[in-house]
Write a structure and sequence with these properties.
This protein is of the alpha+beta class and about 160 residues long. Helix content is about 45%, strand content about 35%. The protein has a six-stranded mixed β-sheet. Strand 1 and strand 2 form a beta hairpin. The longest helix has 24 residues.
Amino acid sequence: MHPNEKLIEKFYQCFQKRDYKGMNECYHQDIEFSDAVFIGLKGERAKAMWQMLCERATDLEIKTSAIKADDNEGKAHWEAFYTFSQTGNKVHNKIDAVFQFKQGKIVKHTDSFDLWAWAAMALGIKGKILGWFPPVQAAIRKQASDNLEKFINKNSKS
């Protein structure tokens, strides 16, 4: 197994255990992360997002497959099963991840998933009916960004 495949495996094993410190050890200091909700997070903001998700998760289960990597790039498929705290709805999110590596760490991480499908699961009927609509997706992104900002501010004071 290529060392970068082991690095991806470690990242998701730590996520399963909600070990954000272990996850963030896999990241290069210049990490850039994006997905359908959190776009263009860099450095400590990307790391703080994982900390927030890990600390808020109550019933998270992660399953990975198709992990492949070489010296420069990698990919994985992963699935997350959890309860969305704001609604109590069960979510089964299917995600494809791509990675770039630098100095033995992940320097770029991009997750792709269907935001409409996620909204339907997480938000229920409102998400199913309106989750495809760009202003609704923008509102989801804004709320997530605001939540991350509040989390960072709270943790920087403690």
